[in-house]
Amino acid sequence: MHLHFKLVFFSLILCTVTTSLPLYGNILSDNGLPGNDYSDHQQTGERLRSLVDTYPELSALTTLATTQGGKQIRLLTIGAGNTDIRPAIAVVGGISGNHLLGSELAVQFAENLLAMSDQNRIRQLLDSVTFYVFPEMSPDARGQYFSSLRYERLYNNNIIVSHRDPDSGAPPFMDLNQDGMITMMRIKDPTGLWIKHPDDERIMVMARKEKGEQGKYRLYREGVRAGKQGCFNAPDKRGVVFDRNFTFKYPAFQPGAGPHAVSEAETRAIADFLFQSGNVFAVITFGEANNLSEPLKYNEAAASARIHTGWKNDDIKINEMVSNLYQDHLENNLPAPAAGQDGDFFQWAYFHCGRFSFSTQGWTVPETDAERPDPYKSEALRLLRWAEANDIPEVFVPWEPVDHPDFPDQLVEVGGIKPFALNNPPYHMVDSIASIHTNFIIDLAAMRPVVCIVNIEKEKLDRDLHRITAQIINKGSFPTASRTGEILRWKQKTVIRTTLDDTQQMISGKPVEVAGVIDGRSVITRSWLIHGSGNVNIRAGAESTGFSETTVSL
Prior knowledge:
Number of domains: 3
CATH topology of the largest domain: Aminopeptidase
Oligomer: single chain
CATH architecture of the largest domain: 3-Layer(aba) Sandwich
Helix content: 10-25%
CATH class of the largest domain: Alpha Beta
Distance between the termini: 97 Å
């Protein structure tokens, strides 16, 4: 009865808490009024619709799917004229519910690009390149930041309970200190594995047994154990995680992976779109992985396997080229490199969809005290040092003792890093970060593959016999396809098509040729032997490179 009473009491407290403060407290603008914060799902939609209203000839907004939580998966298409048959870049944000910055970078890219559309350089770009912007791929999970109970969540609203127990629908956490956030709780216990960091006692780190350190605390997510439902020592794993639901190295039977690969409306929506959009040559993802601050390393065994799991060597060189461009734009503010994870979107886009795939977090907490290296490599300590060096307020909830129904005779304290603080900068920093990434994507688009027919020669060999020779050049820095894309059916190949008049006959040469990859800044030469006079039409290209067409009169 006593435990039941406490659970009911905590539930009542939870239902009455309301908070909508920005990530780092109530940021004030120059006029003293509350400043902006990250946009929720509704506000994101309003910003996108505003762009379409302002730039109707350059943008279009569509809804690809609706999540279990009733939120829309939106696509903003940017470009002039026929956007389907030109090289395209997909810009994807909000793939993780705890990465608010990713959505903001995608939306601000669209806002910045369209705001510059009156400039000649940008208008020429929009006349020749299409941008597909997916700003919010995990809207159910991301919505937890804007909820009355704030905690980092990755799963969507498709409730899946792996242990087959009935799900109550109640959250797995309890706000013990009534601050509207779920942080951590530490329990003083000689059997624990955790200790206070010797440089900052606010931070908990794992005791190093090899150094003779003895644990003194147990560390859990803030909450109570309510039967088998409110298990406080694990994150909420009831739903499906967008970045674990794709087919490449799909983590079957793992928490968050879903009942099967691409089981969710949001994953199916973007997968179907990219499979059907032959004009996309590259995907830029704002997410956990990062192959831009440092390029991937070539793994010959993985890359040459029958079912390869490593990037092809030629594609690694493209990754290096793009990484150098990224480093030039961000200079000393590079986010930390990070590998992909099983079932994620970033790797699927390359291995199973055949597109060049680049990903970055956009920002990670900078290292501010290189003279005091942290042997524990604590991200929390790095955040506190950076926040204090830059006068960033309120990233930490001070530890506060609480009465805990599961530990009645032990010291239990609640506190720690605020939710979302490790993965997202204060909102007042976002504009400058977004501006840098906008310029990076613009310069990346200028490196797109561009196929042209040049240096056409015709030679009369006999009265009615002619030889035509032409060079097909890729003027861009990107090849016409990735090496993985070359072997996948989902990536449209470069086609050279020669059409004759009815009175003509092709003696040698191919009327239709599916060409291999044309590397960046490279040329291939083709010739045809034609009998008869009249016009010969030559067309070369693909949706992802654009088409070039010319007519030769014989």
